[in-house]
Amino acid sequence: xxxxxxEKRIWIVKQVPNGMPINKVALAQKVSRITVYKxxxxxxxxxxDGLKDxxxxxxxxxxxxxxNHHS
Length: 71
Hints:
Blueprint: H1 6-15, H2 22-29, H3 33-46
Helix pairs in contact: 2-3
């Protein structure tokens, strides 16, 4: 599964209340029905802020640039 863009997630949350069946929304975006339900839940809880793109994976760690010099 590929990651949906913010615009596509917005499109999903607009279609369901307008009466489009979940399975048709999922098919249109090439995602599972579960993904559509999850997007709807996130939108219900966090509004549009919950649909914004988030960085995935571990947060960046800045490594110390000091080198040990052997004299």
